[in-house]
Amino acid sequence: MEHYPEELRTPPVTLVCIVGHQDLHATISTHLHSEQPPINTLALPDFSKISVIDKSPKEKENQLPSAYTSSGILKRDWLLKHRTRVPAVVAALFDADQLSGDAAQWLQVCTDLENLKTVARGRNIKLVVVIVVRFNSKDSITEERMVALRKRAEVDAKYVITFIPDDTSELNQSLNRLGNIFGELAVTFYRDEGRRVKTRLEKKNYGSIEFNVRYCFKVAIYAEFRRDWAEALRMYEDGYHALREYVLRIQFELQMIGTSTRLPAIQRLVEIKMVAELFHFKISTLLLHGGKIVEAIKWFRQHNASYKKLTGPTQVNFLHWEWLSRQFLVFAELLETTSATISSSALTVADRTSSDWEFHPAYYYQLAAQFLKEKKACVEISVSVTPIEADEGCDSIVPSLYVGQFARLLDLGETSVMQLITDEEYTLFALISEGKRLGDSTEIIALLKKANEAYDNFKSQRAASFCRLLMAKEYFLTSDYTNSKHHFDKLTSLYRQEGWVTLLWEVLGYLRECSRKLGSAQDFVSYSLEMAALPISPISSRQELKDCGPAGSPSLKHVESIHKEVFAVVREETLNDEEENMDGIKVNSDHPLHLEIDLVSPLRVVLLTSVAFHEQIVKPHAPTLITLSLLSQLPSPVEIDQLEIQFNQSECNFIIVNAQRRESSSISNIHPDRRVETVPVIQLFTNKWLRLTYDIKSVNSGKLECTYVIARIGPHFSICCGAESPANMNDLPLWKFEERFEASPTKDPAIAFSGMKVTQVEEPDPQVDLILGSAGPALVGENFMLPVTLTSKGHSVESGELKINLVDTKGVGLLSPREAEHSSSSDNLFVELLGVLCGPTQDNNDNIRKVQQSFGLVSVPFLNVGDSWSCNLEIQWHRPKPIMLYISLGYSPSSGAPKVHIHKSLQIEGKTPVVISHRLMLPFRRDPLLLSRLKRSPESGQAVSLPVNETSILVVNATNCTEVPLRLLSMSISEDEVTPKSKTKTTCTIQSGIDSDPSLLVPGEEFKKVFTVKPELNVSKLNLGCVCLRWRRDHESSKEVVTKQSLPDVNLEFPPLIITLECPPHGVLGEPFTYFARIQNQTKLLQEVKFSLSDSQSFVLSGPHNDTTFVLPLSEYILSYKLVPLSSGSLQLPRVTITSVRYSAGFQPTTAASTIFIFPSKPQFQSEPGKKFSPADQAPQQIPA
After folding, report:
1. What is the pLDDT of residues 640-658, one digit of tens each?
2. Fewest CB atoms within 10 A around its CB: which of 283, 315, 395, 539?
């Protein structure tokens, strides 16, 4: 759309004129531009310039001669004039001082208004009077003077406004008021103008159809000025249809009369198409911007059908194709700029009169390029037919006053006139102008590039490739072989994938010529070989296809010609016909050529290599057979000078030489140590396998793989093919659907079915024993020693290496993935390899190369036959986990010999040595009241609560969970590493019982130890520390291990009441004793307590049974009972129940606390030697635990 003028590409914008007060023009113009819709301004500094908008006759310049009576359809500058020179509203700006000044100033105002009215009345321009007043003197103008001003200007009162520029608020109001008035009057002006022209249309007050078309255009433009898009679209359509009627009338005149009173035939057709293009552009723009895509496409289809056949005379039909190309280009750009979208699935059946491509810009870009190519071809024909000579008269031909017309500008001294030109002069002018333009190929390539990109965005690969093909051909025609080759190369992958042989033939022909022109021998040979190996059937060769490029139509004759030509180049032979056309394509000692063919190369059809070992596993130094098979689809036999077969073990490489071409083969390429085989001839026939079988020996163990087969043809040309296995060989994509005999690469069907290009060479049998010793399961925390012993029986050990790997039995790592993400510390490992101990006499640093957390590499010293060497692996388990220990020994039996490997594995169980548990208890027959126990459910899982300043009992158990006896050295409670030392010392006191000697724990046995805990401070949480257990295996060589387990935190509470039961440790039948229940109140509150005592048949008792009492603050209350036992044995004391009213808590002693043993008679106790027994020793005492 860039070739259209701006006034046509953009919607019309209202134009207003402001006269006077030049200092305010910038402010007013800026505000009007920001309005919606915007308003353009024509600023005149003073009233002497108002002649610019006057309707006075222009100078008679650039006018048609008076002898020519008929005018054109549309004036070229009419729209530009209304957008830049004919305002809808004119505003006269006067200063307030001019109105309130002396008579001379008022007279000047009246004169300026009269002149302005005269100019405005001629064009029906609306008038606005603006009085510029200062803020401080806005009331200086009298009402009489304002009335006189309105009468003089002949305008309504609302169109005489005051403008105050020196106050921000008043300035904004003035600008808004001025903008509203301009918008209102502009709409009125354009509506009146449109009605005036439309009245002529309705009354048909015009002399010819040209005026009908012109009036429709004017009414539509006036409707666009006032944003009435529906009216504008309707009038554009009426004008288009009127123009179509005009075309039919002209055609009738030419048929009936043979001539016309208007322009000559060619120029008349050019004018009609230009006007039709203008109307079509406006209609399409309005439809697309209104979201009516379907209607716009229908309209374009109708427009194309109406004018596509109006080509005109043959000598100027290139103008028609250029015009038609521009229609498609402009519509594609309009489709791209529109924001509306529509899916083709939403269309009705009636709307689908054409393909779905019409909804995409790429379709129109492609056709625009196609029509432009037609225009290019027509220009070449016209130039060849019509002689073009330098004519100075053509330089004076310029566009006329009307759209689509041209005339000769004659300079007559002080003036100039337009002279009509004939069709012959116009044809010559068009051809000369076409020659001065840039080449059409550039525009064609740009259009095809846009179409290609649009198709790519739409995921339409085939349509995009077609545009790329046209673009590459256009580059080729312009001799831009680099870009042409670039685009042709991109097309070949799609054509190979789709199997389009004919199209691939054409593209490869172009690529071959591009490579020839660019002097690229490698590309030329590659493309030529691929073309020669394409599947060309005899049927297709009998069909002569058009436009197949420089290679011609695909045929067997052309294929054989290309084959002969390319092998003449690589063999450095000369062909008399082609020597001059090679353009520097040479293969010689200065320019050797090497091609590589991999598994996905298109040149697999040229040379396909298959390699198969007859055995999958072989012994070292033992011969095995290998079959080499070669296949080619080239049309003629190919003789190969030399074949080189390469392996991953270079010692196995060997060369096969053609005996008939021994002199021409490049013997210099043969390594002096390589094995050379000679055959009578190496010749490949079309679609026939060439099979060669040889034996080979491998001296190194491991994988033996055939990697490449290099075929040398001539002294300086070679093809390197990747070796393929018969079992895994893929088909040739372009040949798999052809009717041809498919033979197997090998004669043996078993090898053809399962043969591989790789075999495994076994290692020699090791003659060294690798022994792993194990001392049972490993225990968490200990340094587990595993002895490893090497004994040489038949081989000496040189350059020995011992590799150690610790692997989880499930195949995962020794560190969990979540732990691996958050920490790299060795503490998070399950198992860790600490080191390797190689004996006291050896320096460990010399033998151990590298030890990591789960991997170790140890050097083994030289061992003679019969020697042995041992080491100990030091492994530590941090958590219980079974692991697999893999140990691999690699050594050389002699200097320079290949290494021999021995692999051993051992599963080791990592187990927990001891399980530590604990239990907290209160003192015997002493029960403090803890309020948290009243609110906590038994299964709540909350921390244990201990009373403050009361001694509690902590029992720690240690159970042997292993299958081996353990020697328990000590058990203690230490401070937790996380807890500061000062905190534990000041909050509680922990004491243990009597330390015992180291004890033996057999499997399953439990060890217990009692500790006392007395919290000394009233804190909310108490950290008890951790249990430290020192142990070792039950043999002297084992090392001591420390196992730690943290104790959970406990809550501390202050008990308000403490209940203590006191009675003798035993009693005698019939002898009374005293039973006390002490209630201790530790609060500063008076505590109400209820108590009751249940009767017992085993005792006679005296004392209070059921009552309520009060315990004073910080004191105690004692319940005393006298009991006489009536039977002997273990008896239950009368059950005492005590209830605190304040806390709603009851107390009942446990069964153990209420049990006492009664002897039938008074027992006799033996005293210690040297100590006398006294009755006081038998007095009952309180037992704390």
Report:
1. 999 999 999 888 999 999 9
2. 539
Q: Which residues contact 995 (CB under 8 A, 6 or more apart)?
A: 970
How do 1155-1159 and 1066-1068 pair as beta strands? Answer: parallel
Cα separation of 464 and 461, whole Å?
Answer: 5
Q: Which two structure tokens, joined as six digits, stand for 197?
A: 């022209």
What's the pLDDT at 983? 44
Query: At which residue do the structure tokens 């002006």 appear?
Result: 189
- pLDDT tens for residues 264-284? 678 888 888 999 999 999 999
Q: Which of 167, 129, 136 is nearest to 21 (CA)?
A: 129
User: Above 70 in pLDDT, residue 449?
Assistant: yes
Q: 47 to each of 29, 148, 150, how far by Cα in Å? A: 18, 20, 18
| Residue 318: other Cβ atoms inside 10 A | 26
Helix, strand, or coil (residue 883): strand
Instruction: Determine contact, residues 881/831, Cβ cutoff 8 Å.
Output: yes
What the block records as the tokens of 462 is: 């085939």
DSSP state of 1165: P
The span from the CA of 1084 to the CA of 265, in Å, is: 127
The total number of residues written for the chain in this structure: 1185
Residue 403 DSSP code: T
Give φ, ψ of 405 to 5 degrees. Answer: -110, 150
Task: Give the phi and the psi of residue 957 in degrees, each rounded to 5.
Answer: -110, 140
Q: Tokens 């709603």 map to which residue?
A: 1144
The answer to whether the beta carbons of residues 1029 and 968 sit under 8 Å apart is: yes
pLDDT value, residue 1117 = 92
Of 165, 158, 157, the C-alpha closest to 136 is 165
Q: Would you say the C-alpha torsion 673, 678, 684, 690 has a positive or negative sign?
A: negative
- Provide the strand spans (E) within 46-116: 89-95
CB atoms under 10 Å from CB of 813, counted, come to 15
- DSSP per-residue codes, 718-785: EEEEE-B-GGGPPP-TTTTTS------SSSSHHHHHH--SEEEEPPPPP-EEEEE---S-EETTSEEE
- The torsion defined by the Cα of 746, 748, 753 and 754, in degrees rounded to 10, comes to -100
Q: What's the whole-model pTM score?
A: 0.66
Residues with Cβ within 8 Å of residue 28, at least 6 apart in sequence: 18, 41, 175, 178
Helical pair 209-225 and 265-289, crossing angle rounded to 10 deg = 30
